[in-house]
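Internal QA ticket QA-208
Title: Verify multi-chain structure generation after dependency bump
Assignee: T.L.

Test input:
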Amino acid sequence: MRTIIHLDMDCFYAAIEVRDAPELRGQPVAVGGAGPRSVLTTCNYEARRFGVRSAMPGLMALRKCPHLIIVPVHFDKYRRESQRVRALMQAFTELIEPLSLDEAYLDVSARPEPGVEIARELRRRIYRTTGLTASAGIAPNKLLAKVASDWKKPNGQFEIRPGDVAAFMRDLPVRRIWGIGRVAAERLEREGVRTCGEMQALPVWRLQELFGSWGTELFHLCRGEDTRAVEPHRERKSLSTETTFREDLRTLDECRAALEPLFAEMVADLRKYAEVKRVTGVMVKIKFADFTHTTVARGGAQPELRVYRELLEKGFGRSGQPVRLLGVGVKFAEEAAEEETQLELPLDLGRGVGHR
Amino acid sequence: MKFKVNRDHFSNGLAQVLNVVGTRPTMPVLSNVLIEADGDHLDLTTTNLDLGIRCRIKATVNQSGSVTLPVRRLASIVRELPNLDVQVEASANHQVKIASGGSNFRIMGIARDDFPPLPEFANETTFTLEQAVLGQMVASVSYAQSADESRYFLNGVYFHFHDGKLSLVATDGRRLALTHREMDFGGSNGGSLILPAKTVAELVRLLTKQEKFGVTLAFNDRRVAFRIAVADESSGLIDEVHLISKVVEGNYPNYQQVIPKEVHQRVKVERELFLQCIHRAALVTSDKSNSVKIKLSNNLLEITAASPDFGEAHESLAVDYSGPDLQVAFNPAFLMDPLRALTKDQITFELKDEVSPGVFKTDGNFLCVIMPVRL
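Actual output:
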């Protein structure tokens, strides 16, 4: 049996800003750009009380909370603090998989002391060193550890013991499963499924009908089963969001309408990585009713809705078929910082329609 | 077939058609040159099925006829013959006797019937240009062609006849060179073709730099033919050299979309001087750190390069510049290629920031867009 800790810093960026500017203490504070179209990256709990959320447009946040203080982002500072936290984790294990600057999985199975004690000690050291609080989830796998870290947030921790898994999963809303977003949750809701317990009643073939090959994974995840290893060197090369439509989209206009929420969802995911990863290209994936699929990519481009619209039009034009699935994504630069990268011209080199 | 020919004329003619022949052709006859003797000349033709060349040389033909002979061996033999007078005679079984002074060779040929004819053209689009102009245009872009087979449609130079001008474009996806020239289409509507890299190389070799010699280009959607007037008849070549090639089939990408619309920071540089500075700085680069940094500050252009295990280089040029400080890194070869190919003394170099392309320009007829290296 493994012991995995999911460590999640509490409102990381906002907490750092408040720590460094004591006059902000007790005030609703958000971190984000100041422009009319910019969005917040994080906000503290004082701001959340007013309904302010991460990824919310700054203007909307100010409407909900007029005395909200919006601080500009200082990624250098966040990265530095993140490294200090990382160093503290390394005292306990080498098996650390960072998810972003403020989140990581630790595999502490090899340690003699119980996971809860490690988590408590780690959080204590983080607070002593950085003045920041963190929450932790302790569980037999990554899925449960991540869910658990949210349970006693902020500045708390929660353990799911192997014997408690079944009971814990029964009432857990499906959205808490990693990977289930708005679209998947809606599809499950149409099946009358809101909790993992209800999801466990669905046979594996039904999940496959709904979600394709991911269905098998979901079959296990909704039972709290997750065998994914903590991978210290996992490097994210791309990020994408896709959805299979209940009914195929027949026109370009329908596709355009479907593109926008997908784009918004991807950008929200992207926000977690944008500061550590450099985007080197964007792509649109289209699967047609006849199961052929095509990917339209543009190197060098940045994730802007305009670019995705152009790529969509190009991809849609490659087949006369209705569209079954749409995906939007970005490619990240390779991590090796010293590598020189020859940038590519944003030439449209078309790639044609391929078969699975 | 029986003729008398000047050794050097024969040798020059064979040299014109030699390059086309591959080392391991699919049919034996493709290793051969087709020799057709008639009137006061010989026609020499080679082909590799994708690309064919024909040239004409002076000769005294006693008996007209034709035969094919292995071109590489034949060229070596002719070059080495002891006497300027060369007698050639073919017998019925395609054996060819070559006699010059005390030398006498008998070479096994192949019947001309086996030699694939060069395609004939009909109803094609035709344009005529000056050789020196076309040669300079091709040379100023051809270095930017892609050698990446997976992007086969970039393995050539794009000829685009449009809006009263001929544009030539080449790109490998990292840099793009474009040149254009006003042109009178005569009643034609224009059109476009992708000339394969191998044909580009042959074309550049065949075009004379002397002024006032024409080249006529005819193409349809599968093939292109160049008729290149011979400039120097003292070589023994007469009339025209014909180059007939398949075109690259595929759509050339819309090159206009990568040409920056706005002008950012701009400096004028002395081409030769700039080239020498980059060349010297690039001497310290390595495979791992193959870039030079161009730094612009008030009236100063600096070029630096470094590789961790070897050392550093610093070069500087006085320029007329008063914009913000800028630093952009490039692959030095990408900067040197256009600087070498151009002939103008002064060129304009435009920069924006470390992730936007640098652009070389001359007087409205040429530009080269080069993507930077991100450090």
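Spot checks passed. Residues 238-335 of chain A form a domain with the Dna Ligase; domain 1 fold (CATH 3.30.1490.100).
Status: verified.
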